[in-house]
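debug: dumping io for the single-chain case to check the tokenizer round-trip. Nothing else runs in this session.
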Amino acid sequence: MSVRIATAATAAAAVLGVGGLLPPAQTQTVEARPPDRPASPVVLAHRGASGYAPENTLAAVDAAKTLGIDWVENDVQRTKDGVLVVVHDTDLKRTTDVEEVFPDRAPWAVKDFTAAEIAKLDAGSWFGERFAEARVPTLTQFLHRLERNRQKLLLEIKSPATYPGIERDILRVLRKEGWLDPSHVRNRLVIQSFGADSIKEVHALRPDVTTGFLGTPEVADLPSYAAFTDQINPSYKTIGADYVAAVQRLKSPHGKRLRVNTWTVDTAADAAKGGRPPGGGRAHPTTPAGGAAPPPFLYGGAQTVRTGVLRP
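debug: decoded output
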């Protein structure tokens, strides 16, 4: 039996362009999944709908909302004066005009600037002139926009070793803004990191919060991760059916099956076959997976447009 599903033109709408119209959905025939698995993907906007607006800005959050995307992923770091800000790179060069505004402050690390200094930076012109007013948001501002839009948050703690105690700071802001109430914790919040110790700390401080470890632990080590995390979130290129099955045999601290949340799916073929890893899980594509490619922007030396698709 087979079913017709939309390719990224619908299932991963956020990757389809920079400020353009969605092309008509393209479809392909794929093997139907067992009836106990939902057919519809859940779409996650990676750093916001960053195919449409500058990554990790409020404009990218709003673009995700316009596309009907509930889940938004972001990256959180801390300024010199202790304010939490949403930015991916540990320096400000790629996504702001920091080198022009503060030419004598190399290497322009996030941790070396105050929140007021970062607020002066243009975080949008690199993406397009119409985003010249975009700024690096604080976590508080980001949460306010998500709340206004009724969206959900996949929060990544970025480079936690650089910011000792950032887990408490993040939880403090989440609590203050109402994001640690039962409704948000159950339905609208996941905290993840490449730092195992960071996720352990979040779990120790708030065992009720859903957490994810970014990486591909050895199968023999998975039981130790299952003690403090709900998700194992590896690159899809590092896993296969056996690995997913090994993860899903374990139970998370909340007594549910451990989840697999994969990234980064870059092509239509990968979205169709690798975008859903064997045995289930989730996937985050970064480039258009169907239809004409939008104007690309630079990310880590590769031309990609960031967003993501989750499959339950």
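debug: round-trip ok. Residues 1-35, 285-312 have pLDDT under 50 and may be disordered.
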